[in-house]
Design a protein that fits this description.
Chain A: It is a multi-pass membrane protein. The complex is a heterodimer of chains A (about 400) and B (about 270). Chain A has about 400 residues and is mostly helical. Helix content of chain A is about 75%, strand content about 0%. With about 270 residues, chain B is of the alpha/beta class. Chain B has a domain of about 180 residues: Rossmann fold (3-Layer(aba) Sandwich). In chain B, strand 1 and strand 2 form a beta hairpin. Classes of the chains: A mainly alpha (about 400), B alpha/beta (about 270). Chains A and B meet through helix 8, helix 9, helix 12 and helix 19 of A and strand 5, helix 4, helix 5, helix 7 and helix 8 of B.
């Protein structure tokens, strides 16, 4: 069933004109979704995109009816997308209004708007199908998307959208970042929060409406949410996160379309989303900045540090060490000889440990609120955690009035 | 918290006594002056027709009990929350004309420190306004940001993710961001809340230096025991203005009793 050579052909853009067009479209869409989705995630508005995408459906239906009424083909794509955009805006305005003017929390407002609009849209589609006007076949593909028969013009539309989104994100990256991180400060720098939020919603809408064609309205939110949350595991910097998220989205679009091209009747949209989900799972497990395995590694490293510190303090006091793990850690770092007596390096390390331990004790006494933090930090070299000025202050307090510094 | 959608009403000066008008004209040395400022959260008044002036080249504290409207005063002056009536003038002009001369340091607890940003990223945010949309951050900007970090003893942690810092270190990053703005007036919302003694010393030393060099600082402050040592001027506030002026005149037991009621004991330091 799975045709490996077709898959390779699709990955190398040799699977025919149509597949290549779809692949390029999906790459651009994934990239735009990942980029815009990053700001959406950082603004803690990811769910709004779900309401927005579901709210497009009545617009599609109404646009179809209007165009068919005037004797056109109801399936004229730009018309349908315009209708989708307008009803998405109405849905968004409803969410805004509900959270602003009533006591509803935003999750409840989103749920209410999402399901009402979606229900209305489904009813409209059913009516359209029963009317039998305006070549309605295929109108349902907006639910889950469809890549069959994608035209060159539609790929151009996607390319234009991606460039447009890239341009807007580049121009407004600073206000967007500021509003996401520190709304108060953004305001005092003269940034209009409401306008910035509107811009963000506009970008989300642009991605959603264009994504309708390929992945469909039910799954398009995945392209706005999954890439940024996956990217968050890899980095601690906003700029890097935006690029990583765009890349993850683009890779999902690329690999997803190639997979769907290599299996007959495999739907592209869901496969793209599944590829994104796999990338998310991989990031969750293996990413260095925040991944699960790295977390386990850090937990292990922490317990090593505990043993190391305990062992060094025992060396300093001239006590015998019995704990098996402690001995193992000290031996592996050549701080003790095979017979358990300390090496030269071990004695030096013990003195450093004693000095830093004393300084951390003063730090903990100065900052009783931060007891947990202090307990975690005190096992690291002090210079990695505190600045020179902070260390100097601790040393001053340690020395007391006599002015004698602790031994280094 | 949801704010009532209110618009600042135009303040009519028609019925002001002429003599009082002259007083206002006379002290044009105010870095920030608020006139008749009233703010309410819904129908709960937070500030009631407050007049206050903070002179240039001075260090001023805003003190008062919890819920006295101290932070509200700064936020309303900066247009972060709407006021019902009254206005604020900075260096004698409306905010929009002199915005680049003012740096605002929000409460540390007001942001999500898990945000993907490093220490230097946050300081560079202070330059966004002057950079505009197209200029990229270059070596000059980074050097400037590092200088600001040097002032608050944070250079060695410049590449740390901000969530890994202690409370005092985070506060110093916020101060460094304000320094990067190269402002003449610093407005600080509880800069000493939940910070360690060393940080408090670093910040106060730095602020005093800035003021000596002609800058102005206005801080919402909780610790009454340090007001005299740290500040030149004070505004004693409890929804309405109780006293405003040099510390020796305004920071009196009488005024404090009026602000804090009978319980004039050292209030618990409040964590924002």
């Amino acid at each position: 069933m799975f045709d490996i050579s077709a898959f390779v052909d699709a990955l190398t853009f040799r699977a025919g004109y149509n597949t290549a067009i779809v692949a390029i479209g999906a790459i651009l869409l994934g990239w735009a979704g990942g980029t815009v989705g990053t700001y959406l995630l950082l603004r803690q508005r990811s769910l709004v995109s779900d309401a927005l995408s579901h709210a497009t459906l009545p617009g599609v239906g109404v646009a179809f009816l209007v165009m068919a009424w005037f004797g056109g083909s109801g399936r004229f794509l730009p018309g349908l997308l315009l209708g989708a955009a307008i009803s998405a805006m109405i849905g968004l305005a409803c969410v805004e209004w509900l959270t602003r003017r009533t006591r509803l929390k935003s999750d409840a407002a989103i749920g209410a708007v999402l399901s009402s609009f979606f229900g209305l849209g489904i009813v409209l589609l059913t009516v359209i199908q029963s009317l039998g006007i305006g070549r309605q076949a295929g109108i349902g593909s907006f639910l889950l998307g469809s890549t069959s028969g994608m035209l060159r013009n539609e790929a151009y539309t996607l390319a234009a959208l991606a460039l447009f989104v890239a341009f807007l994100v580049f121009v407004f990256r600073r206000p967007l970042t500021l509003v996401c991180f520190d709304e108060t400060f953004a305001r005092t720098s003269g940034i209009d929060i409401r306008r910035t939020d509107l811009l963000l919603m506009f970008l989300v809408m642009a991605v959603t409406v264009t994504g309708l064609r390929i992945v469909g309205l039910i799954l398009v939110v995945a392209l706005l949410i999954i890439p940024p949350v996956a990217a968050r595991f890899w980095t601690e910097k906003t700029g890097t996160m935006i690029v990583a998220s765009g890349l993850i989205g683009a890779a999902s679009g690329f690999v997803g379309t190639a997979l769907s091209a290599s299996v007959p009747n495999f739907p592209a949209g869901p496969v793209i989303v599944l590829v994104a989900a796999v990338l998310f799972a991989l990031s969750l497990l293996f990413a260095p900045a925040r991944g699960v395995f790295y977390g386990l590694y850090r937990a292990r490293a922490f317990s090593r540090k505990v043993h190391r510190r305990q062992g060094l303090l025992a060396i300093l006091r001239g006590e015998a060490i019995y704990d098996h793990d402690t001995l193992k850690v000290l031996r592996s770092e050549k701080l003790i000889h095979g017979d358990g007596t300390p090496t030269r390096a071990g004695l030096d390390a013990a003195e450093t440990a004693a000095r830093e331990e004393a300084l951390w004790t003063i730090y903990a006494r100065n900052n009783p609120d931060a007891a947990n933090r202090a307990a975690r930090m005190r096992l690291d070299p002090i210079a990695e955690r505190l600045t020179a000025g902070e260390i100097a202050e601790l040393e001053r307090q340690f020395a007391g009035p006599s002015g004698v510094l602790p031994a280094r | 918290m949801r704010w009532a959608a209110t618009r600042p009403l135009p303040v009519s000066t028609a019925n002001w006594p002429v003599a009082e008008m002259n007083v206002h004209v006379a002290d044009s040395g105010a870095a920030l002056k608020v006139r008749g400022l009233s703010v309410a959260y819904g129908d709960k008044p937070a500030l009631s027709s407050v007049d206050a002036a903070f002179q240039q080249g001075r260090m001023s504290a805003i003190v008062g009990p919890n819920g006295a409207g101290k932070s509200t005063l700064l936020k309303a002056a900066m247009g972060i929350i709407p006021s019902i009536s009254g206005d604020a003038l900075f260096f004698g002009r409306p905010l929009d004309e002199v915005r680049s001369r003012i740096a605002y340091v929000p409460q540390r607890a007001s942001v999500d420190w898990d945000f993907p940003a490093t220490v230097i990223d946050v300081v560079l945010m202070g330059l966004y306004r002057s950079l505009g949309p197209f200029k990229l951050i270059g070596r000059g900007q980074r050097a400037l940001a590092l200088n600001c970090l040097e002032e608050v003893d944070m250079v060695s942690l410049a590449d740390r993710q901000i969530g890994q810092l202690s409370g005092g270190q985070q506060q110093r990053v916020f101060i460094a961001r304000a320094l990067a703005q190269k402002a003449d007036l610093l407005l600080l919302d509880e800069p000493f809340a939940g910070v360690d003694a060393a940080t408090e010393k670093t910040i106060i030393t730095l602020l005093k230096k800035l003021v000596r060099e002609g800058g102005t600082a206005v801080a919402v402050h909780h610790d009454l025991s340090t007001v005299t040592a740290y500040f030149d001027d004070v505004l004693v506030l409890n929804v309405r203005r109780i006293a405003n002026g040099p510390v020796d005149k305004a920071f009196t037991e009488e005024h404090l009793a009026e602000a804090y009621g009978g319980r004039l004991v050292q209030p618990e330091p409040e964590l924002a």
